[in-house]
């Protein structure tokens, strides 16, 4: 009969303890910050997609395409953020109520004109960048390199999106 290492869990154990070099307390703190980022990101995704569907005016084609590029990128990022939360041993939020409770941004109640859409998306991207920056500090403090990498990429994208959108308002 093969020997079983003392470090391996027994078959009767409910779950395998996470031991990735980050304490449970730090993993919980990072996951909480990432959950706020996920909520803000989902809210921004939903707003951007809504504007893609409903934009009108002389810049219709330009904005329709730009919004589609941005919401598609944002949609793909949602999965990456949620999966990082799961890798840290926590459940990712996934309901509108959870997102409303965690998000720092809200969705507009009415369909604004194109200029207001652009302005709203500038503010939304900046808000997501601020949320990512707060999470980045928590990830750095926990020496969580994968989270830091993810957040650095998210910051780059949202700061660039805000700049591009802001340029349309000049």
TrEMBL record:
Superkingdom assignment: Bacteria
Protein's name according to its UniProt entry: DNA starvation/stationary phase protection protein
Cited InterPro entries: DPS_DNA-bd, DPS_DNA-bd_CS, Ferritin-like, Ferritin-like_SF, Ferritin_DPS_dom
Domain Ferritin/DPS: 33-169
Family, similarity comment: Belongs to the Dps family.
Taxonomic classification: Bacteria, Pseudomonadati, Pseudomonadota, Betaproteobacteria, Burkholderiales
UniProt xrefs under Pfam families: Ferritin (PF00210)
């Amino acid at each position: 009969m093969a020997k079983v290492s003392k470090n391996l869990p027994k078959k009767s154990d409910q779950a395998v303890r996470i031991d990735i070099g980050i304490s449970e307390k730090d993993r919980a703190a990072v996951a909480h910050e990432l959950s706020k980022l996920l909520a803000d990101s989902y809210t921004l995704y939903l707003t951007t997609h809504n504007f893609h569907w409903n934009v009108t005016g002389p810049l219709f084609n330009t904005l329709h395409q730009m919004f589609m590029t941005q919401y598609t990128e944002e949609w793909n990022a949602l999965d990456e953020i949620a999966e990082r939360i799961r890798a840290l041993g926590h459940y990712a939020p996934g309901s509108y109520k959870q997102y409303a409770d965690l998000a720092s941004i809200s969705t507009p109640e009415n369909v604004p004109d194109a200029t207001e859409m652009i302005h709203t998306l500038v503010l939304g991207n900046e808000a997501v960048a601020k949320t990512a920056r707060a999470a980045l500090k928590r990830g750095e403090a926990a020496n969580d390199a994968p989270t830091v990498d993810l957040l650095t990429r998210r910051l780059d994208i949202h700061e660039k999106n805000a700049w591009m959108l802001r340029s349309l308002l000049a």
